[in-house]
Design goal:
Layout (H helix, E strand, L loop, with lengths): L1 E4 L15 H15 L48 H10 L5 E4 L16 E5 L7 E8 L4 H11 L3 E6 L2 E2 L2 E9 L9 H21 L21 H16 L8 H15 L9 H30 L3 E5 L9 H8 L2 H11 L3 H5 L11 H15 L4 E6 L7 E5 L2 E5 L12 E12 L2 E7 L2 E7 L2 E13 L6 E11 L5 H5 L3 H13 L11 H29 L6 H4 E6 L6 H12 L4 H11 E4 L10 E3 H7 L1 H22 L3 H7 L2 E4 L2 E6 H8 L3 E3 L2 H9 L3 H6 L4 E3 L6 H7 L2 H11 L21 H26 L8 E6 L8 H17 L2 H4 L5 E6 L7 H19 L7 E6 L4 H10 L2 E4 L11 H7 L3 E4 L5 H8 L5 E2 L7 H6 L8 H11 L6 H9 L10 H20 L1 H13 L6 H13 L8 E2 L39 E2 L18 H7 L16
Parallel strand pairs: 8-9, 8-17, 9-16, 17-18, 18-22, 22-23, 24-25, 24-27, 25-26, 27-28, 28-29
Antiparallel strand pairs: 1-2, 3-4, 4-7, 5-7, 6-7, 10-11, 12-15, 13-14, 15-16, 19-21, 20-21, 30-31
Helix pairs in contact: 1-4, 3-4, 6-7, 6-9, 7-8, 11-38, 14-16, 16-17, 16-19, 18-19, 25-26, 26-30, 26-37, 27-29, 27-34, 29-35
Length: 1143
């Protein structure tokens, strides 16, 4: 039977003669409470849901798991500052309360069960103006919210609250008044208050999980030394702070909508009734970020409590791409947010397009760093990324008449909802000046007096993992002036000088890779690199010293990974900090330095190894140049004991490069290699090449340092998320989605590669993706392409060694061949759309000429009526991650055609292969290992081998190019595509001995491979089988595998998953219900302990790889030092500063 209790009691107010609203409310609630089967069984339904008591104004979630007494805008523990009259108006306007209880029909109630420790006392005599309600109850999550909401429903105003604990009991006092501002004195009202509170707390006890919140007295870590009222106040403050937020944000549709609308109104300052798509995107992003911050805070608190060895990934680039969809997928909230936005009238896909790519990188180096962060989070590693928050990125590429034009990328103009500014975390970074030496305790001490200082301010970007509660961090530094404004100069009329220091400082983090053809450009690049590593190392040391009082354990707690040579200036910077700032001697500092740094090399080209003029380093970083000289001198002395007086060899290995007719330079790769305990290549062929070419001398004397770590990409962004239709088909075919974490499971597709039904569905998905790509091509270029044609893609940084020029020359050859055909012959031609994209560095003249040639060839080919849809040539401007997420799923052929032995690895080839795109390429970089995994028969391979390239270069002057190649060169020289003088340097560079990248040598074999492509594409069953086999063979190329290898072989860092909350109930009424793991979509998950000494919450804590212990915390959100102190037998030694997360 359904019992409705409405305020129908005829109690008459003795003063007014009318029914008292307060009395009616209390009487009704007490009557309802007495009738509720609080101590009996839960309401009968399949989910065994608890009895529900709700006010008519309460919002209800779809599955009824919201707190029973949740009210729209009820404030928690906020002292009421409004007048009594205002409170009376508010009470009068409130809707009358209706309490309902669902009672099982025809079943008798068992013996009463409830909280046997519960007591409620109402005292109206101790305080002259306020009624004191004292409550003792068993500790349960959400109890404070229940109490405050119930008191509000009773029409009582909470003027003051004292939150406390006594053993495992909540001991809270509420100082209240009635809706008239007076204390409660009527005996019937007092009885009703006690009845309601007892009923609500008993219901909450049965509904919630068992287990008590740890008392602040359980650990001394959270309070300052001493005793007395001050310490008690600190403990109570922590109790209060914890209790205010002891549950996760709910993730049902209604809660998501409320979160979004709250951000629209309170964060963006817009009307919740009227906001556009961009504002909806911002609000949705902020709502997602709220959830990331919860996880981020808990993860960092867990790391701090367990004090694991951490890895810090230093990179000048992080090409992150869009964050909204990636975060939603990783949090498994994509469907919930899509539905929430749909009901609000917004389309998720439209909102996604409003996000601009973060302009924090350029090419493969930055994208690799982003994939690695995703995998570090997914693999539960205690890891952070460090880089620079570029104001304008590298540049935004536009094409005007085929010429590249660079424009600032104003990606931050409207803010970045994903970042968290940390103005309290900033470090001074020094430049220029001079160094003085003085004696300190019998040893030399160096003091650097800078000529310029800037402030590095931290911006944090939470990085969620997939299927893990962990969220790690990308910390980016923004340069700010140490002194914001020169008022003296301004007051004397020198307005430019007044802001000059501000502009100088902000220039450091303005642009990625400033043009370094000038001295000023080189100076700015060096300042950028030092700025990043100095702030990072200061931050790392500060974090380490929070938990340690010496540097003895520094190598056991810190791993620093140099992503290429850009952060190498961090080697002398760490030495400087350890010696000059922290007083360590040279030997100790060098021992620490050589045990924490490891170095990833990304090139085999000697000219790509970074060097800085000594005079530049001496001017900008005088102390560091001294340290580099010292490192080099000691290294050479050690080297002489190994190679004797072989000065030629010593000269080749020296950090300082010098010779006749050239200035001295600092070889940054040599410095990184000497100071690092490990150096690794990024593909098997690359790792072998560096041992025999650029680092041959080093490998001979220190072979133990060298390793290979073949690159990988995150299959989540690059397959599961960007190609959802294919992802769903793979899951259906394999019968599991576990491949999203363990990519090797894709091998199971091989057994189905010849299944006609699967092949047809595979083709249908590819066609749909091609149609989406065709729409993007039209939107960006205005060129219409046929989705039924073969989509041939080459998208990457424009560079001579990547040989986009070879591609465009073959397009010219193809164009000539089609033009020479008859109409009948053309019917047998496989239609092809050739799509090329990528940026040329601003100072790279040859790369810019290549872009212009591609555009010029496209203008001629696309306008030729004889060609029609048989051949289209498209250059996609401003290629970035978001473009790639459309291009890669829609591609059918991807070209990776660098001269063998020049590409370190490449990662785009892995992304294309994962999506069933076939590869046309040379045996260079990761192509070698891809061929091993998917089978060379499922690729189109051509070109000279890496072993043959040196010999072919030696005889290049006498090599006779094939006629087909010469014909194309002549055609371009003669102006067939216009701009003959502009293209002449390109043709000169591929003629005779100048053809360093062997375009002429590989041209004929390249055309043969292209013919094989046409033949295979004509047989769609064969092509589709090859496509499926391509996807099936990419299991090795997950960045998860790469990161596991780094962690085990280089960093010695172990996974450190924060404890996952569970939802096992200890209440008697839940004995028949199954145990369920609480996930991030749980609507009632409780948060953990906010700080040492703070109140905990009910339940048990699942500890990974921990000693067997009694259940401590259920539905625990936070897993900080207190949780671990209790879990590990009250042996905590965490410092008192752990009451706040130190990040």
């Amino acid at each position: 039977r359904l019992l409705h209790y409405t305020p129908c009691a005829r109690a008459v107010c003795p003063t007014t003669g009318f029914l008292s609203r307060k009395r009616r409310r209390m009487a009704a609630m007490a009557s309802a409470a007495r009738a509720m089967p609080v101590c009996g069984p839960r309401a009968t339904n399949k989910s065994n849901a608890p009895v529900t008591v709700a006010s008519s104004s309460s919002s209800r979630s779809a599955n009824g798991r919201a707190s029973e007494f949740a009210r729209g805008r009820a404030a928690l523990l906020t002292p009421t500052s409004t007048s009594a009259a205002a409170r009376r108006r508010t009470s009068a306007a409130a809707a009358p309360l209706r309490v309902c209880a669902v009672v099982d029909v025809g079943k008798s109630s068992p013996s009463p069960v409830g909280d046997d420790k519960l007591s409620v006392e109402v005292d109206s005599s101790s305080d002259p103006a306020l009624t004191i309600i004292a409550i003792k109850a068993s500790n349960r999550p959400g109890i404070l919210q229940i109490l405050n909401t119930t008191l509000a429903d009773l029409g009582l105003s909470v003027e003051r609250t004292v939150v406390d604990m006594e053993d495992d009991l909540v001991c809270d006092k509420f100082y209240v008044t009635d809706d008239g501002g007076a204390k409660v004195t009527d005996a019937e009202d007092i009885a009703n208050i006690k009845t309601c509170l007892m009923t609500m707390l008993n219901a909450h006890f049965l509904k919630s999980s068992g287990g008590g919140r740890p008392s602040p007295g359980d650990s001394a870590a959270g309070a300052p030394p001493g005793s007395g009222a001050g310490q008690l106040d600190v403990r109570r403050q922590k109790d209060l702070l914890y209790s205010l937020m002891d549950n996760y944000i709910k993730n049902d549709v209604l809660s998501v909508q409320k979160s979004i609308v709250n951000h629209v109104e309170y964060t963006l300052g817009r009307s919740r009734y009227r906001f556009d798509d961009f504002e909806a995107y911002q609000a949705a992003s902020l709502s997602v970020r709220d959830r990331l911050i919860e996880s981020w805070n808990d993860t960092q608190q867990h790391f701090r409590a367990t004090d694991p060895k951490r890895v810090y990934y230093l990179s000048m680039e992080f090409l992150m791409g869009r964050s909204l969809t990636n975060s939603l997928y990783n949090l498994e909230l994509k469907g919930t947010f899509s539905e929430a936005l749909k009901q609000l009238g917004y389309d998720m896909e439209n909102l996604v397009m409003k996000e601009r790519d973060a302009a924090l990188g350029n090419g493969g180096l930055g994208r690799l760093a982003a994939c690695f962060l995703d995998s570090m989070a997914t693999e539960d590693l205690p890891a952070w990324g460090y880089g620079i928050r570029y104001q304008y990125g590298m540049f935004r590429q536009e094409l005007h008449e085929g010429f590249q034009h660079e424009h600032p990328d104003y990606w931050l103009n409207f803010g970045n909802p994903w970042e968290i500014e940390r103005p309290n975390i900033n470090y001074n970074v020094k430049f220029y000046g001079h160094v003085t030496v003085h004696d300190m305790d019998g040893r030399q001490a160096f003091e650097w007096t800078p000529g310029e200082e800037v402030s590095a301010v931290a911006y944090d970007n939470p990085i969620p993992g997939w299927n893990t509660p962990n969220t790690i961090n990308l910390r980016l530094w923004s340069a700010k002036p140490s002194h914001e404004f020169d008022l003296d100069s301004f007051n004397t009329g020198d307005y430019v000088q007044a802001i000059l220091s501000k502009q100088r400082a902000e220039t450091i983090s303005a642009v990625l890779y400033p043009d370094d053809r000038t001295y000023q450009g080189k100076e700015l690049r060096l300042k950028q690199q030092y700025f990043m590593v100095s702030a990072t190392l200061q931050d790392v040391i500060r974090r380490y010293l929070v938990s340690h009082d010496s540097f003895e354990q520094f190598p056991d707690k810190v791993a620093l990974q140099l992503n290429d040579t850009h952060p190498t200036i961090g080697v002398p910077e760490l030495m400087r900090l350890l010696m000059d700032e922290h007083g360590l001697g040279w030997s100790t500092a060098w021992d620490i330095t050589t045990h924490v740094f490891s170095f990833t090399n990304h090139t085999v080209l000697p000219e790509a190894l970074e060097k800085w003029p000594v005079e530049l380093v001496e001017a900008v970083l005088p102390r560091h140049m001294q340290i580099i000289y010292d490192i080099n001198w000691r290294f050479i002395q050690e080297l002489r004991t190994l190679v004797g007086d072989d000065y030629a060899r010593i000269g080749r290995m020296s950090i300082i490069e010098e010779g006749e007719g050239m200035g001295k330079c600092v070889r940054m790769a040599h410095l990184a290699l000497i100071a690092s305990h490990t150096v690794n290549g990024v593909a098997a062929i690359h790792s072998d090449l560096i041992k025999t070419t650029i680092f041959k001398d080093f490998y001979a004397v220190m072979p133990e340092k060298f390793q290979n770590k073949t690159n990988g990409v995150t299959q989540r962004r690059w397959l599961a998320f960007c190609n959802p239709a294919l992802s769903a088909l793979i899951t259906e075919t394999l019968g599991t989605d576990a491949w999203v974490r363990e990519l090797e499971l894709l091998r199971g597709l091989r057994a189905h590669a010849e299944d006609p039904a699967l092949q047809q569905r595979w083709r249908d998905i590819k066609l749909a993706n091609k149609q989406k790509l065709a729409e993007m091509v039209f939107e960006k270029t205005g060129i219409t392409v046929a989705p039924t044609a073969l989509f041939d893609i080459q998208v990457k940084r424009i560079h001579e060694y990547k040989r986009q020029l070879l591609n465009v020359m073959s397009i010219v050859h193809r164009y000539n061949a089609i033009k020479a055909m008859s109409v009948v012959e053309r019917q047998a031609v496989v239609p092809r759309v050739c799509i090329i994209g990528g940026k040329a560095a601003p100072g790279y003249d040859m790369a810019k000429r290549i872009i212009k040639l591609i555009s010029a060839v496209g203008d001629v080919v696309n306008a030729d009526p004889d060609i029609g849809d048989l051949l289209k040539v498209v250059f996609i401007p401003d290629y970035n991650v978001s473009s790639a997420e459309i291009i890669i799923p829609g591609s059918e052929l991807s070209q990776h055609i660098s001269t063998a032995g020049t590409e370190a690895s490449g990662t785009s080839n892995m992304k294309f292969a994962m999506n069933g795109c076939l590869i046309l390429g040379t045996m260079d970089g990761a192509n070698v290992e891809i061929a091993e995994e998917i089978g060379a028969e499922n690729m189109f391979i051509f070109g000279a081998s890496a072993a043959d390239v040196p010999r072919l270069r030696d005889v290049r002057a006498t090599f006779k190019p094939p006629a087909s190649f010469t014909a194309v060169v002549t055609q371009i020289r003669n102006g067939a595509f216009g701009w003959d003088a502009f293209f002449a340097p390109l043709m000169d560079a591929v003629t005779g001995a100048a053809d360093y990248y062997l375009l002429a040598n590989d041209f004929e074999d390249y055309l043969r491979a292209q013919a094989e492509v046409d033949a295979a594409y004509s047989d769609q069953a064969r092509w589709t089988k090859m496509s499926i086999m391509s996807t099936a063979g990419t299991g090795k190329f997950s960045s998860d595998r790469t990161i596991r290898e780094y962690a085990a072989d280089i960093w010695n860092v172990k996974p450190n998953r924060r404890p996952t909350p569970t939802s096992k109930s200890n209440s008697p009424s839940s004995s028949s219900s199954s145990t369920t793991s609480a996930t991030y979509s749980s609507l009632n998950e409780s948060r953990g302990i906010a700080a040492v000494g703070g109140r905990g919450k009910g339940g048990s804590l699942a500890l990974d790889a921990a000693p067997a212990t009694p259940p401590l915390l259920l539905h625990s959100r936070r897993s900080d030092a207190l949780a671990y102190a209790a879990t590990f037998a009250a042996s905590s030694s965490v410092s008192s500063s752990s009451s706040s997360v130190s990040v």
